[in-house]
Amino acid sequence: MRVLVTGGGGFIGSHLVDALLARGDEPVVLDDWSGGSRDNLPPGVETLDMDVADPRTVSAIAALRPDGIIHGAAQVSVPRSMADPDRDRAVNVVGTAHVLAGAREAGSPRVVFLSTGGGIYGESDGADEMTLPQPKSYYSAHKYLAERYLEYSGLPYAIARLANVYGPRQRSDLEGGVVAIFTERLSAGQPITIYGSGEQYRDFVYVADVVDAVLTMLDSSVDGMWNVATGEATTVNALLAALQERLGSASAIVHEPPRPGDVFASRLSIDRIKADLGWSPRYDLAAGLDAMLK
Ligand SMILES: NC(=O)c1ccc[n+]([C@@H]2O[C@H](COP(=O)([O-])OP(=O)(O)OC[C@H]3O[C@@H](n4cnc5c(N)ncnc54)[C@H](O)[C@@H]3O)[C@@H](O)[C@H]2O)c1
C-alpha cells in the first residue's frame, strides 16, 4: 500500500516511515524540511519537497494517488504560533485543507491526522475525547480547527490526539520536548532548568506506541477521534529522577518561574482507544526511556 506521510522527515513521521517500510508498505514523504531532516529517513524513500501551505499540494497529492495518508506536517512550535498566527494558520489549517482536497482528488483514501491532546484540552487530569476543548494558543486552536476539517470532509478519517511524545530523533532545540532536552543536557553535563516547582505533570507516551496507534487507525475502517497516551501522570521532577538514574546526576538544577501559557496538569484518558481499536501502550516510562537510550 502506498502511504503518503506528510511531515515524514520529522520526529514522529520518520518513525512512521520506518514502520511502514518494515511491514512492506511504500511510504512517500511530503516535507518542506523546515523542522525535519533527510538524515531521519533511510535511503531510497520517495520524497515530495513541498510546503503544505502551497496550493500546489492539492495537485501533487492527486497525481500521487496514495492508498492512505498520514498527515503530520505542521508548524509545531507554540511560541512561534503566538508570534506569527497567520503562518500557523496557513500551515496547520489551510495546509490541512489542501491535503484533504488532494485526498479527495486522489480517490478518497483514508486520512489519519496527528493532532494534539496536550494542546487542545488545556489543564487536564484524565481528559477524554468528550472533554470541553480549551486550547490556549493559536497552535492548539488551529489544530482543533483542522480536526473539524477532517470530520466535515466526507473522507474516511481518524484523528490521533497525541499526548507528550518522546523517543529517538526528537529535537531538543524545540520547546516541548522536555525528555529530549533533559537527555541532551544530562549527557553533556550541562545544568538542568526546571520551570516552576517541577511538580507539574505530563502524560509521556513512547514514539513506538504512537506509531502502533497511528497504523492501527490507518488500518481500521472506523472513523473517529482517539487520545493516544498512557493515561499515567509523570511529574517533571520524576522524569528528571528517572533520567538521572540512567545518565548520572545533573551538574546543577536551576529553578525558574513557570513560563506563561504552560499548563500545570496534562494527563489523558485512553479508555476510548482501548475499547474501539484494542490499542494500549506497551511501554511505561521506564521501558520507554530504556528503549530510547539503548
Ligand atoms: N511531539 C509531540 O509530542 C506531539 C504532540 C502532539 C502532536 N504532535 C503532532 O505530531 C506531528 C509531528 O510532530 P513532531 O513532533 O514529529 O514534529 P517535527 O517538527 O519533528 O515534524 C514535523 C514535520 O513537518 C514538516 N513541516 C513543517 N511545516 C511544514 C509545511 N508547511 N509543509 C510541509 N512539511 C512541513 C517539518 O519539516 C517536519 O519534518 C505534528 O503534526 C504535531 O503537531 C506532536
Automatic annotation (TrEMBL):
Name of the protein in question: NAD-dependent epimerase/dehydratase
Pfam families assigned to the protein according to its UniProt record, in alphabetical order: Epimerase
Positions of the NAD-dependent epimerase/dehydratase domain: 3-228
Domain of life according to the entry: Bacteria
UniProt similarity note: Belongs to the NAD(P)-dependent epimerase/dehydratase family.
Classification via InterPro entries: Epimerase_deHydtase, NAD(P)-bd_dom_sf
